[in-house]
Write a structure and sequence with these properties.
Layout: E1 5-7, E2 10-12, E3 27-29, E4 45-51, H1 56-72, E5 77-84, H2 88-98, E6 103-107, H3 111-115, E7 123-127, E8 133-137, H4 142-157
Parallel strand pairs: 1-6, 4-5, 5-6
Antiparallel strand pairs: 2-3, 4-7, 7-8
Length: about 160
Amino acid sequence: MKPMVWPLMTLVACTPPSHPTKPPVELAVERVDPSALGVVGAGRVIVLDFWAAWCAPCIEELPKLNRLSEVYASEGVVVVGVHVGGERSEVERFAKDAGIRYTVMIDEDFSYSQSLGAERVPTVVLLDTYGREVARSARVDGSLLEQLEALVHRTTEG
């Protein structure tokens, strides 16, 4: 399966509930392959992974993110890798060679990652179905997975 690499361009807003605790995060995407996915993450739980191909700790996280994408896809969870910097062709080649099986977007000018306060890589941000940040971590660790589980169960129950 060829990974999809999308540059960050247009903003797709999520509709917040009447009682938001934090403002919603907006996903910015433009599709490279028009036959690919619809709007990424609309109304879904999202795991955003800010990473770079030159970052060894980021590369160590890729198998965990692939597995997360596989395990939680049926629960409506979307994993999106946001590569900071770089050119599309290089990121596409790297994603293919690394076996990434989830959506990859490119933040070529770092504006998206900066707008979310992702100042270091790796940074993993968990968003609820309204686009609000629920958790943030440097890695996919036990705490992040617990919060993801709780969010998925809350989403499927209500």
